[in-house]
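User: Quick sanity check before I run a bigger batch. Here is a single chain. Can you write out its predicted 3D structure?
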Amino acid sequence: MNFLTAVSRQMTRFTALIIILASIIAFIEPATFSWVKGDTQVVVLGIIMLGMGMTLGKEDYQILAQRPLDIFIGAIAQYTIMPLLAIGIAKAFNLSPGLTLGLVLVGTCPGGVSSNIMSFLAKGDVAFSVGMTTVSTVLAPVMTPLWMTYLVGQTVEMDGWGMFKFMLLVTLLPVVIGSVANILLHKKHWFEDVRAIMPAVAVVAFACIVGGVAAVHGHRFAESALVMILAIAAHNIGGYILGYYSGALTGMNTAKKRTLAIEVGVQNAGLATGLSAKFFPGNAESAVAAAVACVWHSVSGTILGNLFAWWDKRQQ
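Assistant: Done. Predicted structure follows.
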């Protein structure tokens, strides 16, 4: 089990590389991941959120109770900066309706589940990071459909109520189940073992979702690759910058500002990919954009975390 735990840590560390590898394999041999669609994809998403829930215990909810102002500022920043920045960039780049849909969907999703690790690498406030991820995930079933309806509901046919119910089932319910299990069973040795390997399971699940999209829609990537990557990069980097200065404007210390930058900038693009496939199956561009964002956010967030750590060493 110690070996599996060590493997899990390494897989979490190299999440971006694993996702890129899965994408390449899907391009070369689509049948490898073509099974990740429909109900199977829903189950895979649920497993990812269950793994997140299993990391949440009493102490994490105590953080929410003890630091309401920090969490409130973080939630406001998360659910205003990224959705509005997404639609602004889509208009500035004159993106197609499909790419606009994908970028806005990424922007309206909660913070990424790997952001806690990135905050740790950045010497940020990890407790704050966990609190923000928790709150943004709990709010997602309401905020994501609302923002999607407001920002793109006029141009794209969508079922906001259906998305709300789906996200309750696939995001909130698994998180609640995982968290309750952690609170009740955290002292059990077998549960500790299961919890220790769940990060690796989540990484594999993310890779499967991205691989599934690449297998089905990968041939469309070349059609708009450059503008797609530029828009995703601008959205992500803009989130880092605006998140950091949101912390500065509200008087946060350096660790909190770094955490806010990462929490705002890194989105749960894996969830966005699943939502795109579920609710916009005829819009291939949106799914490809969300899948590319999943890879980009994983890579850039890790790089940013390491840059913050490098800066500290340089200052010392």
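The radius of gyration is 18 Å.

User: Great, the batch can go ahead then.
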